[in-house]
Specification:
Chain lengths: 389, 644
């Protein structure tokens, strides 16, 4: 199996096996648009998010001088009366604190009654009060400011690193997709939005951008020598990069999901509600959506934005024009989506030499090859033009 | 013979890592010895429990406190608690007017005072202002851009002021300003705006002052209403030297906000805040405003500063003497800004201090269950991750991935314990979940690296060469992508409050540790392993075997270069490094054909590069043979020219 996986990785690397990620981008964008529309519609249909007590405030009961400090009694009492999940804490010896969402007067009396019975204490030993939000408006506001600052900085950083604002634009647009879809899933499952979930949400933003960064770096590498060769088009090179990093994408998301999945499993099935489940769900969803978004949204989007550039279009036309006459003589049957020519047996073969070999081009590449030591020392900003078969 | 360069570098890196581990472990051991630190990380409120304090607000005059004022008080407490470190506290309003503060551990006397102390509001005259050069420049541009019909006189005044700001900055560029740099005051100060308040010591302190969002309890107590004060506005970065208090916040009767009207009575579209003083306040403010108005418009002494809880919230110019006790603060505010200022002023009119009503030790809010299950989930997750890594990378996972994960776990554990000792960092369940996710992010560095090495092997390099050139590429990707995480962490840490801050801290910490690990452990380990026979010769379970990578399949069509010539055995790899000729027929044949390329470089070249080199040599040979009979010498010369 692993050998099969490695073999697939190898074929993806050479471009012999190629999934048309960029070529089929209309389909992916359509699917993405549907997902986004659904994700935006769901909160409206369900009437908003289910915010936790940390955001809304709620009711708090304190049971004092009880012999029995079992937490589950309090949880069950609230569950029976209002069907909510309560936070029950043994705050001191013989004292239990029960926090729930805001209850009306009738429910408050009923929960108080149920708690009295459950813990076997008198009416004077159960007190109730209102508790304000722990996560106030101020925290949300500061977090949003931080988020905006981060997004602006990361946009500038990517534009500077890749020397093109178009990669930034594609990455941030894709990030918007991740955010919208993740919140849609949240809303659809009616999960409680707690501070833990918000933190999980922030984590996946950073994870999704990180994942995009890795794939985009490979695209940058493949595109560096684009104009020096006339074998493959821009689209094919971008698609090759996505295919070449596909094994990494799968491996990374599996490695990321395994621990998160085990938290989610244990959190959801063995423990019920709680921080663990909230965070794990946010991360679980986010890793999957973030990885898919990189492959199906962000990278194809970049190709789409960039494809219209005059120099890219000229290069593509030149390559395709050359290809028409070159391929027939070499017995190449077809060219994969990643720009690898295959012969009649489906084996990859090399492109035939160009009609007029260009001496300039050869020399230029040779110079780069001999620069290896400088590259290893990390002094040159660009990797040398990689030889693509 | 000395070991080759990559091996020496690898050993040096491992030694550095070893010293780092030794330093961290030793530091922590010392802390534990002195019983100031503990081996286990400190746990946050949700996992360990802590202290819950119920505070009731105290107002001297017995007035009623409304919700807005209480919320302001809670915000101020939150700012103060966040300023003390990275421990996450929970602060909420309980019932009609109580405030509940939950903190991990037992708060010390200082923290208690910090929470209870009232936040006073004061009106002080400005003596001097200092700004960052960048902000000053911005102000300069703004002043010129927004006022095209400025009179020459005013413009000169503004330019002079900006120049003065730059002159002040010069003190900052030197290490620190000393009292000797400043002149003695000319006499005793006569009123609150008198520049004679500025002693050389004060001037030096002013120039050395660094604007921080939190103020320590000592600094807070040292603030004397009868004395000048150095403070700043953390939002604009302006540093102020203020005179003694002119009007106390107690004398504010009320504050309101509304739309601003221009001189003609038409609304300007902006909002303004109006301060209403009581009778004593009106009297005091009339006096102060008349004095301030006598100074030139735009000069620092024309301004007064409203100080809340030790920080300047706004410092407007005095446009006219205020005689009726209704001061309008304008300045292009939005409605939110104007309302916020009005709320702060109303709070200032009624400084609330707090009394600790009850204090109890509380158990972990999440219960032992959650921690135990969280750890269990983490362990299961780790085992699954390790299993998957072994499945994917075989012996490479056993030799590199798993030791790397062990080292990263050790560094993270010690770093968290050390930070708990130095900064009071506490691990919450959210933090633990963040750490578990970081397993994935750390493993990704290896995945990126290994996949790049495999790519290089597919290109036909030897393992030693593939490790070096794969690393050069992977390193760039790893650094560029981790930078995104570090950026996120730094921004969120600087801006955010409460839980988010703790999360940002964990995120940044793990990203940094990850980079340290890859550079100082994983890559050096790969460099050393690449020289072992098992990996270099691509044995079946090494994770790098030729069959799995499909190198033969790939190049079957190309023919000439069988893999056996490309991937060297352990002996060969060593010999390459020693630049000895390998007694293999293919290699010797190659040497004869292309004598100018050293063996080491050849090993690093891809098949395509090698083919090109050969073609070039051939072409050069035929070209040369037509003109020149001395074949060998000139052909090698041409090859060299073609390559350089």
């Amino acid at each position: 199996m692993a050998a099969g996986f490695a073999k697939a990785g190898n074929q993806l690397y050479t471009g012999e096996r190629a999934y048309p990620f960029v070529q089929r981008s209309n389909l992916w964008f359509l699917l993405a648009a549907v997902l986004v529309a659904v994700s935006i519609a769901v909160p409206f249909l369900r009437g908003g998010f289910n915010f936790g007590i940390e955001f809304t405030g709620g009711s708090e009961f304190t049971i004092s001088q009880t012999q029995n400090t079992d937490i589950s009694i309090g949880e069950e009492a609230v569950q029976e009366v209002s069907g909510q999940e309560a936070t029950v804490t043994n705050i001191a010896e013989g004292t239990i604190r029960v926090q729930t969402e805001q209850l009306d007067d009738q429910e408050t009396l009923e929960v108080g009654q149920a708690l009295q019975e459950g813990y076997g204490v008198g009416a004077d030993q159960v007190s109730s009060t209102f508790i304000g939000p722990v996560w106030g408006e101020h925290i949300t506001q500061q977090m949003l400011i931080g988020l905006v600052v981060f997004l602006v900085l990361v946009t500038l950083y990517m534009a500077f690193y890749f020397r093109t604002w178009k990669m930034s634009a594609a990455a941030i647009a894709g990030l918007g997709f991740v955010v919208v879809v993740t919140q849609g899933i949240y809303s659809a499952t009616n999960f409680e939005v707690t501070p833990s979930a918000i933190i999980g949400f922030l984590t996946i933003l950073s994870y999704a951008l990180y994942d995009t960064m890795v794939v985009f770096d490979k695209i940058r590498e493949n595109l560096a020598p684009l104009q020096e060769q006339k074998d493959q088009t821009f689209t094919e090179r971008v698609n090759l990069a996505i295919n070449q990093t596909l094994v990494r994408s799968v491996n990374t998301s599996v490695v990321g999901i395994l621990p998160v999945g085990s938290i989610l499993f244990i959190g959801a099935f063995l423990l019920g509600a709680g921080t663990l489940r909230d965070i794990a769900l946010a991360l679980f969803t986010g890793i999957i959506v973030g990885t898919l978004a990189t492959i199906f949204v962000q990278a194809p989007l970049y190709a789409r934005i960039r494809r219209g550039d005059a120099e890219i279009r000229a290069h593509t036309e030149e390559v395709l024009a050359l290809r028409a006459e070159r391929l027939e003589q070499a017995g190449i049957v077809r060219i994969t989506a990643s720009g690898t020519p295959l012969d009649a047996q489906g084996q990859p073969v090399a492109f035939p030499p160009l009609p007029e070999p260009e001496e300039d081009e050869l020399q230029e590449q040779d110079v780069e090859i001999l620069d290896w030591d400088a590259v290893l020392a990390g002094d040159t900003p660009e990797s040398p033009g990689e030889e693509q078969r | 013979m000395a070991p080759p360069k990559p091996v020496r570098k690898a050993r040096a890196a491992l030694v550095v890592l070893f010293l780092l581990l030794l330093g961290m472990g030793g530091g922590l051991a010392y802390g534990v010895q002195q019983s100031q630190a503990q081996w286990a990380p400190l746990l946050a409120l949700d996992l360990e429990g802590g202290t819950q304090m119920v505070l009731s607000p105290q107002v001297e005059s017995g007035e009623q406190i409304d919700d807005d004022q209480l919320n302001q008080a809670v915000e101020i407490i939150r700012q103060r608690v966040d300023g003390t470190g990275v421990a996450e506290a929970e602060i909420a309003v309980q019932g009609a007017e109580n405030v509940v503060v939950g903190m991990p551990g037992v708060p010390d006397e200082q923290t208690r005072e910090l929470i209870q102390a009232s936040a006073a509001m004061e009106f002080r005259p400005v003596l001097e202002v200092r700004r960052d050069p960048a902000i000053a420049q911005e102000a300069e541009l703004r002043a010129i851009a927004e006022n095209p019909d400025l009179s020459d006189e005013d413009r000169a005044a503004i330019e002079e002021q900006i120049e003065a700001l730059y002159e002040d900055e010069e003190y900052e560029e030197g290490e620190t300003a000393l009292p000797e740099d400043f002149p003695e005051p000319e006499g005793e100060p006569e009123h609150n705006s008198d520049l004679n308040w500025i002693t050389p010591e004060l001037a030096a302190d002013f120039h050395n002052y660094e604007c921080r969002p939190d103020i320590s309890i000592e600094d807070r107590q040292a603030q004397d209403p009868e004395q000048p004060l150095i403070t700043c506005n953390p939002e604009s970065g302006e540093v102020y030297l203020l005179g003694p208090v002119d009007v106390d916040g107690d004398y504010i009767d009320d504050a309101s906000w509304g739309t601003e009207t221009g001189p003609t009575g038409n609304p300007t579209g902006n909002y303004e805040t109006v301060i209403h003083f009581d009778s004593t306040g009106t009297e005091l403010f009339r006096e102060a405003s008349t004095r301030l108005y006598s100074y030139e418009q735009g000069s620092p002494q024309n301004r007064f500063a409203i100080v809340l809880d030790g920080h300047v919230i706004v410092a407007p110019n005095m446009l006219s003497p205020i005689t009726d006790g209704n001061a309008r603060v304008t300045g292009g505010y939005t409605d939110d800004e104007a309302r916020n200022l009005a709320e702060q002023l109303r709070y200032g009119s009624l400084p609330i201090s707090f009394q600790i009503e009850s204090e109890q030790q509380i158990s972990a809010t999440l219960g032992a269950d959650q921690l135990r299950m969280g750890l269990l989930a983490g362990i299961i997750g780790l085992i699954l991750t390790a299993g998957y890594a072994i499945y994917q990378y075989r012996a490479l996972a056993l030799a590199v991935t798993i030791p790397s994960l062990v080292v990263v776990a050790l560094i993270t554990w010690w770093a968290i314990s050390l930070l708990g000792w130095s900064d009071g960092y506490r691990l919450s369940l959210a933090g633990i979940a963040g750490l578990i996710l970081s397993i994935g992010l750390t493993a990704d560095s290896f995945v990126v690296y290994f996949e790049r090495v495999k790519d290089e092997l597919r290109e036909g390099r030897s393992l030693a060469g593939a490790v070096e050139s794969g690393w050069a590429r992977a390193r760039r990707t790893i650094l560029a992508s981790k930078a995104v995480n570090v950026l996120a962490a730094v921004v969120l840490y600087m801006v955010a409050v409460g839980n988010v801050r703790g999360f940002a801290f964990t995120l940044g910490l793990t990203a940094l540790i990850d980079v340290i690990l890859v550079f100082l452990f994983t890559h050096p380990l790969m460099q050393l392993l690449a020289r072992r026979r098992f990996f270099a010769s691509g044995k079946r379970f090494s994770g790098l075997s030729a069959k799995e990578l499909g190198v033969d399949v790939l190049y079957k069509g190309a023919g000439r270069f069988a893999r056996a010539n490309v991937v060297y055995g352990a002996n060969t790899a060593q010999k390459i490094d020693e630049l000895e000729v390998e007694p293999d027929s293919a290699a010797t044949h190659r040497k004869a054909e292309l004598p100018d390329i050293p063996e080491e470089e050849w090993a690093r070249m891809t098949i395509a590069e090698r083919r090109k080199a050969r073609q070039q040599a051939e072409r050069a040979e035929t070209d040369e043979s037509m003109r020149n009979p001395s074949l060998a010498a000139s052909s090698s010369e041409t090859t060299e020219e073609g390559e350089r």
